Amino acid sequence: MSASPQAVRLILLGPPGAGKGTQSKLLEGRFGVRQISTGDILRKHVSDGTALGKEAKAYMEVGAFVPDAIMIAMMEQQLVGLDAFVLDGFPRTVTQAEALDATLARLHKPLSAVLLFDTDHAALVRRLTGRWSNPRTGRTYHEEFNPPKVAGICDEDGGPLEQRPDDKVDVVEKRLQVYDEQTAPLVDYYAKTGFLKHIDALAPIEDVTAQIFRAIGARDGATA
Ligand code: ADP
Ligand code: ADP
Prior knowledge:
- By secondary structure, this protein is α/β, with parallel strands linked by helices.
- The protein has a domain at 5-119 and 171-211: P-loop containing nucleotide triphosphate hydrolases (Rossmann fold, 3-Layer(aba) Sandwich).
- It has helices at residues 20-31, 38-48, 51-60, 68-79, 94-106, 121-129, 169-183, 185-191, 205-216, and strands at 9-13, 34-37, 85-88, 113-118, 131-133, 140-142, 196-200.
């Protein structure tokens, strides 16, 4: 398959709780561009009880990162044959970013942009501790900021919502610390490439979506 230079190829960069999953699901709905959420893929492995899931679970429940080698192999598999994509949760380390650069260069699929979700610590803790997730689809809600029509039930598939075990306050603090140590250096990494664009992720959900459309040059999500 030949790669189209116009295809939307985004990285959503930002700490846990910044709204990356919410926005990538909206982008998927609006342009049909595929969301690749490494967290959702890993949680599926954990719930299916695969060997990878058993290994990843131990890291995820304490808020640590799954080793780079596992994540890089997983992402390479996902990207083959895909022209347009939104990466949600990858890369999270400089090693992962370097591997992604090499893969995209080999596949002749240059990035469109890296969108950095700017937030603050207090908002992130509030968002994560009030988050409810659909484990079947990865769709998330917030008990205060984005509630489902019926508490505890997904609007889309009518099934139960759950609070992720790693959204408990002590694990949340650990994940935010790991972000600062291991993922924040990617801001400089991508700033040097000229792909980085800032998004005010403290704004309401629909404003964030509008900022993303502006950043990627799409008027209403129908074109990019
Ligand atoms: P959030 O949406 O809250 O940012 P994710 O669902 O993306 O969290 O990730 C959940 C967990 O999965 C992470 O805390 C980490 O253990 C693991 N994980 C996901 N993506 C990666 C990655 N690229 N590198 C290492 N670990 C990852
Ligand atoms: P991430 O994927 O970056 O970890 P999510 O998209 O899962 O973040 O969002 C984290 C929580 O914050 C969810 O409960 C979601 O409903 C809520 N949320 C997302 N975007 C916003 C926003 N702009 N304003 C308020 N709450 C938001």
